[in-house]
Amino acid sequence: MNHPTPTRHKTSSNSAAPLAQGFTLLEVILALAILGVSIAVIGQSFRLAYRSALEARELTKAQLLAVTKMAEVSAGITPADSVENVPFEDSEDWLYSINAEPLDDPEGLVVVTVLVTPAKPNSQTPIRFELTRWMSEEEIVTEEETQNNGTSLEEDAAGDESSGGRDG
């Protein structure tokens, strides 16, 4: 029986060694560089999103304050006289300005503009909200009318007291 005899391969000392299992230093450095850049980009995205969320919150607050002040003007609680940079009573971090100008055409209308700005403006993202509404002159209450109404109300109250508060 002929059995095959195992043959040995001669290896020379200067031949290439078999490839090692694992990553080379260059691959590790490249992977770390890609990871670092990715983390930096994601971090910037989060910072930008956070700043945008703060800006949106401040703009929403300015809008709510402007709508509230315009409703006060419309209801006659706040006179429609032009004022600038007046702090809000319940939110001193914000200022409002009111501008009321009559229109020439059509007559009888007044343009009322309420501008809301922060008391301490941020130089990076200046927030301001302007709300404009056309109102008829009959709807507008001025400071002078408020004072006249206050005087007539006081006279009415004094008249009621002198008559005992009874009619007739």
Can you walk me through this structure?
The protein is an alpha+beta fold and 168 residues long. It has one domain (25-143). The protein has two helices and four strands; from the N terminus they run H-E-E-E-E-H. 10% of the residues are buried.
Topology:
Blueprint: H1 25-75, E1 83-87, E2 94-102, E3 109-118, E4 129-136, H2 143-162
Antiparallel strand pairs: 1-2, 2-3, 3-4
Mean pLDDT value: 80
Total count of strands: 4
Specify the biggest β-sheet.
4 strands, antiparallel
Assign an overall shape: rod-shaped
For the CA atoms, what is the radius of gyration? 39 Å
Tell me what portion of residues adopts beta-strand conformation: 15-25%
Number of domains: 1
State the order of secondary-structure elements, H for helix, E for strand: HEEEEH
State the distance separating the first and last CA atoms: 147 Å
Give the low-pLDDT segments. Answer: none
Based on helices, strands and strand pairing, what is the structural class? alpha+beta
Helical segment tally?
2
Sheet with most strands: strand arrangement? 1-2-3-4
User: Which bin fits the share of residues in helices?
Assistant: 40-55%
